[in-house]
Write a structure and sequence with these properties.
Layout lengths: L7 E5 L2 H17 L5 E5 L4 H12 L9 E5 L1 E3 L9 H8 L20 H15 L2 E2 L2 E2 L3 E4 L24 E5 L6 E5 L1 H5 L3 E6 L5 H8 L19 E7 L10
Parallel strand pairs: 1-11, 2-3, 2-7, 7-10, 10-11
Antiparallel strand pairs: 4-9, 5-6, 8-9
Helix pairs in contact: 1-2
The structure holds 6-phosphogluconic acid (6PG).
């Protein structure tokens, strides 16, 4: 299946410039939003620098209390575990900015995965407006695995792209770690989808996906295309090294 996906691609020389660009996109979208802004954050290691940068440089430049914080996925571990996306976000951002606890919607990785997937789906349903009969995030931040996964939708679990549920349980193909993840239809229903990808180790997967090379149909991230919203790729020059002209 070949599909055309319209997206904005921005390539940066440094993580600082990329982080600043993300912050400015967030500020622009926040200012255009009259109600609270429903933001789903990414986990993994890439966002860690961005969260630190935001905490250090955008303490007062962003109206943090206007944001409802969600996560695109979570590892099924306690929030005290170093594997926890919530812990990484709390340590690097949430503990350093002025944000109401009531606006933080943590995926409870310590709970039974199947019941927490249902619980978090209900929390999303209760707090987000609907569009196309699905909850609509204002912005979803995504990372990209070297195997083409995004959130916790892995290449051997492509059905999660079209799953009827809002959140579902995924299993990391190598570590067998259980994860809770937003499903593809909810991700694609977001007003803004922002991929953040850095490092030379991501250059092949970035090139395969952005240039829709033949094997890209095997990668979940290839199927992230907003129904109505914007798709923005923020990548550093290392991750862009195989793209034409770089
Ligand atoms: C997670 C993330 C996952 C991540 C990619 C890239 O929970 O790990 O949501 O989708 O974004 O695996 O991870 P890095 O940024 O660590 O390369």
């Amino acid at each position: 299946m070949v599909f055309s996906v319209n997206y904005q691609l921005k390539i940066f020389s440094s993580l600082e410039e990329l982080s600043e660009a993300f912050a400015e996109i967030l500020i622009t979208e926040l200012s255009a939003s009259k109600d609270n802004f429903n933001l789903a954050l990414s986990g993994g290691s890439t966002p860690k620098f961005i969260y630190k940068f935001l905490a250090e440089n955008y303490q007062t430049k962003i109206n943090w209390n206007k944001i409802n914080f969600f996560w695109g996925d979570e590892r099924c571990v306690p929030p005290t575990d170093d594997e926890s996306n919530y812990k990484m976000t709390f340590d690097n951002l949430l503990s350093k900015i002025n944000v109401y606890g009531k606006n933080i919607f943590r995926i409870k990785g310590e709970e039974n995965p199947e019941s927490e997937a249902k619980n978090y789906s209900n929390i999303i349903l209760h707090n987000l407006p609907q569009q196309n009969n699905l909850p609509a995030f204002d912005m979803i931040m995504l990372g990209l695995g070297e195997d083409g996964h995004t959130a916790s939708i892995f290449p051997n679990q492509m059905y999660l792209l079209n799953d009827r549920d809002i959140c579902s349980v995924a299993v990391h193909p190598i570590t067998k770690q259980k994860r809770i993840t937003l499903t593809g239809r909810v991700i694609n229903n977001s007003r803004n989808i922002v991929f953040i990808v850095t490092g030379k180790n991501k250059s092949k997967i970035v090139n395969d996906i952005l240039n829709r090379r033949l094997n890209s149909k095997n990668y979940p991230a290839s199927f992230i295309k907003p129904v109505n919203g914007k798709l923005i790729w923020l990548i550093d020059k290392e991750a862009a090294i195989l793209l034409e002209g770089n």
